[in-house]
Design a protein that fits this description.
Heme Oxygenase, Chain A; Ferritin-like; 9 helices; Ferritin-like_SF; globular; binds fe (ii) ion; Ferritin-like domain-containing protein; single chain
């Protein structure tokens, strides 16, 4: 291979892998992302003011872990190829461990039950649209549904990473929930790398452009729900503080900062 050809191959490979990284928003999208982040930080602070608020946060994480597991693996990829089976099993085991850890934390706050919260309307709509998108793009990849499943998985793991990083920053390292959240955050970072590596492995070079388009569409759906989700979260925090949760929270064994 000539030097020019080699340079072209390296450039193309880099361009493809660029689309795997979480994009940095610009213009209006950057403003929207900033707004969503501000609202969610305020909501987290408010929810931590009460025990019931903290229970709601834990229930949301619990529902999120279970929805991710169900949507990405049981429905989109019920039969992973043999070479991937072990990786998928390990990934699912991590997500189940996260769900268990959130359920235990919920019990530790004195929650009378750890009854699963069904994913909220916003999350359900988002998952349905992601699944529809996956089925539309699957026939265009030689690895079929595996590519949209991992592309959606990548975006969901990047979202989990962003959500948990924000939460850890808001509560700080001295908070009682920090070890749980930062531990899950480390795992989600590992899952982001895992999904990116798998996509690099299963996407053929002539399918790279289609992958970039698929990722852009997955992220557009996520961004479309960003403000609605943030406002719903803020409203939940506001309702919990209105219902007198602050008093209860002052007796909570959870350390507040
Ligand atoms: Fe998880
Ligand atoms: Fe994960």
């Amino acid at each position: 291979m000539s030097t020019i050809d080699h340079a072209r191959v390296v450039h193309e490979a880099t361009a493809v892998y660029d689309c795997l990284a979480a994009p940095v928003p610009h213009g209006i999208a950057a403003l929207q992302a900033w707004l969503v982040d501000r609202i969610k930080r305020a909501a987290i602070r408010r929810l931590h003011d009460s025990r019931r608020g903290e229970q709601l946060l834990l229930r949301m994480y619990l529902a999120g872990e279970e929805a991710t597991e169900q949507a990405l693996h049981e429905e989109l990829m019920p039969q992973p190829p043999a070479w991937l089976a072990r990786q998928v099993e390990q990934h699912l085991a991590d997500e189940r461990r996260h769900a268990q850890a959130f359920a235990e934390a919920l019990r530790a706050t004195g929650a009378s039950s750890t009854v699963r919260l069904a994913p909220d309307w916003v999350s359900r709509r988002k998952i349905v649209r992601w699944q529809r998108l996956a089925r539309r793009h699957a026939p265009h990849f030689s690895s079929g549904l595996l590519v949209p499943a991992y592309a959606t998985g990548l975006c969901a793991e990047q979202m989990a990473e962003r959500v948990l990083r924000r939460h850890c920053e808001v509560i700080g390292t001295a908070h009682a929930m920090y070890p749980l959240l930062s531990g899950v955050l480390e795992d989600e970072r590992r899952h982001v790398r895992l999904c990116a590596r798998t996509l690099q492995h299963v996407v053929a070079s002539h399918e790279q452009e289609r992958l970039a388009r698929l990722l852009a569409e997955i992220r557009a759906i996520e961004a479309g729900f960003g403000v609605t989700g943030a406002l719903a979260m803020y409203a939940a925090g506001w309702l919990h503080s209105l219902s007198g949760g602050r008093q209860v929270g002052s007796r909570s064994p959870v350390v507040h900062r």
